[in-house]
Design brief:
The protein has 133 residues and is an alpha+beta fold. It has one domain: 2-Layer Sandwich (TolA/TonB C-terminal domain), CATH 3.30.2420.10. The protein has 3 helices and 7 strands; from the N terminus they run H-E-H-E-E-H-E-E-E-E. The strands form 2 sheets. A 5-stranded mixed sheet has the order 3-2-5-7-6, with helices on one face. A hairpin with a 4-residue loop joins strand 2 and strand 3. It is globular.
């Protein structure tokens, strides 16, 4: 019984150590310094389409250089891609990361004075866009 507990403790320690190393190796996400406010696409709003748009974004250390659509409704994705391409960043090492835009029909997003728009901007990984009040 004692050997079994020792083996479990050893496995737990190894998992914790590898998790800590992985966290240290993960590159820091870049800081977004400028962007245009996203809006709900008119056609999608009229048709009551909602849902997530997931993208892979690549930067050159200053701005977005490539966007790859991972998933999302075809009436929502083009606007999300167009908006994410407006992002500018504080100087950083070129990187690639994922961002998800959530489009929520008939959900009012409280005006964010920091973002100066009616979208919840949790940059650089999450943006929530609601329809007009």
């Amino acid at each position: 019984m004692h050997m079994r507990n020792s083996a479990l403790v050893l496995v737990a320690c190894c998992l914790f150590a590898s998790s800590a190393v992985a966290q240290k190796d993960a590159p820091a996400l870049p800081t977004v310094t400028d962007f245009k406010c996203p809006y709900y696409p008119g056609t999608a709003e009229h048709e009551r389409i909602q849902g997530p748009v997931k993208m892979q974004v690549t930067t050159d250390g200053h701005q977005v250089t490539a966007v790859k659509l991972i998933s999302g409704h075809p009436d929502l994705a083009p606007d999300a891609i167009k908006n994410v391409r407006t992002w500018k960043f504080a100087d950083h090492s070129p990187t690639t990361f994922e961002v998800t835009y959530f489009y929520a029909y008939q959900v009012r997003i409280k005006h964010d004075p920091g973002a100066k728009c009616s979208a919840k901007m949790e940059l650089p990984t999450r943006v929530t866009v609601g329809t007009k009040p």
